[in-house]
Write a structure and sequence with these properties.
The protein has 1 helix and 5 strands.
Length: 116
């Protein structure tokens, strides 16, 4: 179906209602602080005003994989002059099994709510 003045070779999708999309981005981050409720991450992406507000955090090969929601993000200058972002995330929908795995991870790495 063509409309008057439409020069596109292919039709466009017409979406009625909500349209959901996903972007999968893998980025290595530095873990600055972690506790049972969430973590503070350092990301050296160029400009993440991080529109992605939910994600998954995998705590290494020996740690659990947890669903997270971004609570805050702020750009900071590092001592080497480069910029990075500190991103605070909260753990969400943590199952009892994930909670036990997180507790074990914190004990193994002695990281309970203490900055590096």
């Amino acid at each position: 179906m063509h409309t008057l003045g439409d020069r596109r070779g292919h039709g466009r999708l017409s979406v009625a209602g909500q349209f959901w999309a996903a972007l999968h981005l893998r980025e290595s981050v530095s873990l600055r602080n972690i506790g049972h409720g969430g973590a503070l991450l350092e990301v050296s992406l160029g400009s993440p005003a991080l529109t992605a507000r939910i994600g998954e955090l995998r705590l290494g090969d020996d740690g659990p994989s947890l669903s997270v929601v971004v609570r805050h993000s702020r750009r900071v200058d590092r001592s080497d002059g480069r910029q990075c972002h500190l991103i605070g995330v909260a753990f969400v929908s943590v199952s009892p099994l994930q909670r036990r795995a997180l507790s074990a991870y914190l004990r193994r790495n002695d990281r309970g709510s203490r900055p590096e």
